[in-house]
């Protein structure tokens, strides 16, 4: 039975499900979840991410990680962790760029958190020389000082949508209308998660909250605050909490109706970096940023790197524009660092 039919059967039997439950099924259902068995990246797939646009992205993140390691006092060993590494391209470029940093490679133990079988194969091809260990979740990465990197990972974590009624909040759920999956409304107990600035929103306003993202950031921040380290999270989203629904799906590089043929499209949302920052601070970590990806990459030196590469690669100027221009990924994507409170400001986040 298809995932769509299984979801319909479940809803018919037990009632509407949350958008979060729908996203978990659409993205990670063991049989048909979008990320389980396919490689969706690249021109022939559904979307292109920054590391696939240019080697410069991973190289600069490698430099960022090496500086972080030095700021941490060069722990040996340390965990170099990537959440949702895709094809392994970012980490491959990062490791190539840091090969000459004395002691960095010898000290690193590479840990990859990944849910997709096909993508694990791709990561194994790209990163075999660094003997990675794979985990299904961050909680399984062994203790110790860590540098954690995640690009376009937070957007895949499930959200819930609350809609302001007259005086209370209702939840937008996934039910069945006619014979099709469709949005319906139901009561919610999550009103207390609405950010304070949005609590008095006008009737009809949608606010997204992500208990899953809060839980992930809480775990990450607690770990860094107690065991040492830095995390760098980059994603599309807003620097603070804003009203509005951002649930979206992409298939073959085009928008796709999020409830249509679950498991065949990437269903995500824009990341509320205000929510991420609040969760990290509450867990005892220090937060730097968020700042736009364009500014972050400029501060790490993307322009001189592009100049050097352009002598042998004519596509570099276009890639540079895609990564940093304000009407491309430059401000739509935000970078945030989460750190042990005693560590110096991570590279790129100086004010
Ligand atoms: C949008 S892709 C980004 C890939 C890569 N970071 C890049 O920038 O090219 C999302 C990645 O997160 C992984 N992923 C999605 N949901 C996950 C989950 N719940 N647990 C672990 N990995 C997950 C996907 O399989 C994929 O590797």
Structural class: alpha/beta
Oligomerization status of the protein chains:
single chain
N-to-C series of helices and strands: HEHHHHEHHEHEEEEEEHEEEEEHEHHHHE
Which percent range describes the beta-strand content? 15-25%
Computed CA radius of gyration, to the nearest angstrom: 20 Å
Bound small molecules, which ones?
S-adenosylmethionine
**Low-pLDDT windows of residues:** none
The DSSP helix count reads 14
Task: Give a written overview of the molecule.
With about 350 residues, this protein is of the alpha/beta class. Helices cover about 35% and strands about 25% of the residues. It contains 14 helices and 16 strands. Strands 2, 3, 4, 5, 10, 14, 15 and 16 form an eight-stranded mixed sheet that branches. The longest helix is centred in the N-terminal third of the chain and has 17 residues, at about 55-70. The mean pLDDT is about 95. The structure holds S-adenosylmethionine. S-adenosylmethionine binds near residues 41, 51, 113 and 115. S-adenosylmethionine binds next to α2 and α4.
Element layout with pairings:
Elements: H1 3-14, E1 17-18, H2 19-28, H3 34-37, H4 50-53, H5 55-71, E2 78-83, H6 89-97, H7 104-107, E3 108-113, H8 117-127, E4 133-135, E5 146-151, E6 160-164, E7 169-177, E8 180-187, E9 206-209, H9 211-227, E10 229-238, E11 248-251, E12 254-255, E13 266-268, E14 271-272, H10 273-282, E15 286-292, H11 293-299, H12 302-310, H13 316-324, H14 329-332, E16 333-339
Parallel strand pairs: 2-3, 2-5, 3-4, 5-10, 10-14
Antiparallel strand pairs: 1-7, 6-7, 6-9, 7-8, 10-16, 11-12, 11-13, 15-16
Helix pairs in contact: 5-6, 9-10
The protein binds S-adenosylmethionine.
